[in-house]
Write a structure and sequence with these properties.
Layout lengths: L3 E2 H5 L6 E2 L4 E4 L2 E7 L2 E7 L9 E4 L2 H16 L21 H4 L2 H7 E2 L3
Parallel strand pairs: 1-7
Antiparallel strand pairs: 2-3, 3-6, 4-5
């Protein structure tokens, strides 16, 4: 199993998750950009290199976390594309990943340096 960069994890969209096969297609990342003097998280479809666009398996801990996140968004009636979006539909920034993912998922599958 490979490692997922923070920016890639935050860029995951619901449409790119295959629930039956328990996989996720990584093709979007989040970058920090300044708009009107404020730092905002912006999704981009330009990955680090060709191999960065890939399908990753979802181990049980990640699969369960995704189910919980989807349920939270449905309870709040959020219509968002991304797994990790604010209520207003904006993506979370890269530093937020540690607040949004269970520590077991982070330590096993997220590269904290990326």
């Amino acid at each position: 199993m490979g490692i997922v960069r923070r920016s890639e994890a935050l860029g995951v969209r619901w449409s790119r998750i295959n629930w039956e096969e328990r996989t996720v297609w990584l093709s979007t990342k989040i970058i920090d950009k300044k708009e009107n003097g404020k730092k905002v998280a912006v999704p981009v479809d330009i990955m680090k290199n060709k191999k960065s666009r890939r399908t990753m398996p979802n181990p049980d801990v990640v699969y369960e976390m995704l189910l919980e996140q989807k349920e939270k968004q449905e309870i709040r009636h959020l219509e968002v594309r991304g797994v990790f979006n604010h209520r207003k539909g904006r993506f979370y920034g890269r530093k937020t990943v540690y607040e949004r993912l269970p520590i077991t998922a982070i330590s096993a599958h997220i590269n904290p340096q990326a």
